[in-house]
């Protein structure tokens, strides 16, 4: 898994060279996908917001009601190609006449795309879905650009690729930071704090990587909303809250009031919960800044796995659940 994480920069560079054909022009998109495949939709939605465009994200069966009434461009993302929720989204989207683009390494989704004549982007296979973010997100951005929804992502992908390689490549500069954070988080449930905007999907990514790679409990929450509820929860059960470690993700474009809230939130809760550290985004483009935080989070999750003595690759409980679902069909 460490070698997979080190290839994030290569994946982003691959996407920068990607030529996407057959994408219909549209004014709005809906990204459908689950887990490590679907998280790319959350990143794309945040980047679309920066450009003043709207991209929806759907993580369930079928498509939402609004998409049936006014069909958007549906981008179905499944790394394996066999995610049942995503396949059902394709069937429903086709049924209401929505244009569909499939992003996958193969499987049933690729077969459906070829059979139905849907636009298809094939990414390299052989990885865990959560280790293919560069391929999947880069493909989504290229599709959205081809549809006229987002600007050309090539320069941002190239910057992100170079930056991520310097952070998480073989001699990555983020190794020391990740090790320090993981050692302070060892034995604690992890809470990852971001804010509405670019750090929101990254906080979610940190949480899910810690879950899957380290087999470790974690959650994520966002400013300013967490200041209206979550901070109260630290005071009632100190025996529980002191077993939590908070990591905050910070971007230079965080609104001034959000930055003030982060500082004051730490001050008023510091005696109740352990604030482990803040991680600051690097880079110029919004994509590069997001990916810099992703690179650190991936390494933190792997360091936590090492400290726990667990293999980060298998996700047996997910596979077991899928088998049991299959038995009930």
Descriptive account of the structure:
- By secondary structure, the chain is an alpha/beta fold.
- The chain folds into two domains: 2-160, Glucose-6-phosphate isomerase like protein, domain 1 (Rossmann fold); 174-308, 3-Layer(aba) Sandwich (Rossmann fold).
- It contains 15 helices and nine strands.
- Helix 6 (107-116) links the parallel strand 4 and strand 5 (119-122).
- The longest helix has 23 residues, at 286-308.
- In terms of quaternary structure, the protein is single chain
What is the CA-CA span between the terminal residues? Answer: 33 Å
Secondary-structure content class: alpha/beta
Q: What global shape is seen? A: globular
Largest sheet, described in full?
5 strands, parallel
Number of strands: 9
Architecture of the largest domain in CATH? Answer: 3-Layer(aba) Sandwich
> What spatial order of strands do you see in the largest sheet?
2-1-3-4-5
Overall average residue pLDDT? 96
What would CATH call the class of the largest domain? Alpha Beta
Helicity, as a percent range: 40-55%
CATH topology of the largest domain: Rossmann fold
Q: CATH superfamily of the largest domain, please?
A: Glucose-6-phosphate isomerase like protein, domain 1
| Tally of structural domains | 2
Number of helices: 15
- The ordered H/E elements are HHEHEHEHEHEHHHEHEHHEHEHH
Catalogue the unreliable spans. Answer: none
Indicate the proportion of strand residues.
15-25%
Kindly provide the radius of gyration, computed on alpha-carbon positions and rounded to a whole number of angstroms. 20 Å
């Amino acid at each position: 898994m460490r070698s997979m994480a080190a290839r994030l920069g290569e994946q982003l560079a691959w996407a920068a060279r990607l030529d996407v054909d057959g994408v219909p022009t549209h004014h709005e998109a809906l990204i459908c996908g689950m887990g490590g495949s679907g998280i790319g939709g959350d990143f794309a939605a945040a980047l679309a917001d920066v450009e003043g465009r709207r991209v929806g994200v759907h993580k369930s069966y079928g498509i939402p009601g609004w998409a049936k009434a006014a069909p958007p461009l549906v981008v179905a993302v499944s790394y394996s190609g066999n995610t049942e929720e995503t396949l059902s989204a394709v069937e429903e989207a086709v049924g209401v006449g929505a244009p569909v683009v499939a992003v996958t390494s193969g499987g049933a989704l690729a077969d459906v795309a070829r059979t139905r004549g849907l636009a298809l982007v094939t990414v390299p296979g052989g990885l865990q879905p959560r280790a293919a973010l560069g391929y999947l997100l880069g493909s989504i951005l290229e599709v959205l650009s081809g549809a006229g929804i987002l600007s050309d992502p090539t320069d941002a992908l190239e910057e992100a690729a170079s930056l991520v390689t310097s952070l998480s490549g073989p001699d990555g500069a983020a190794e020391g930071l990740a090790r320090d954070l993981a050692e302070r988080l060892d034995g604690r449930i992890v809470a990852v704090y971001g804010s509405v905007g670019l750090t929101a999907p990254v906080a979610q990514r940190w949480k899910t990587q810690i879950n899957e790679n380290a087999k470790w409990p974690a959650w994520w929450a966002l400013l300013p909303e967490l200041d209206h509820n979550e901070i109260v929860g630290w005071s009632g059960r100190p025996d529980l809250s002191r077993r939590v470690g908070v990591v905050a993700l910070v971007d230079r474009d965080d609104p001034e009031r959000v930055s003030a809230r982060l500082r004051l939130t730490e001050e008023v809760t510091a005696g109740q919960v352990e604030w482990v550290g803040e991680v600051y985004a690097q880079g110029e483009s919004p994509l590069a800044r997001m990916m810099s935080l992703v690179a650190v989070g991936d390494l933190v999750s792997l360091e936590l796995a090492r400290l726990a003595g667990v293999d980060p690759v298998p996700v047996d409980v997910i596979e077991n659940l899928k088998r049991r679902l299959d038995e009930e069909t």
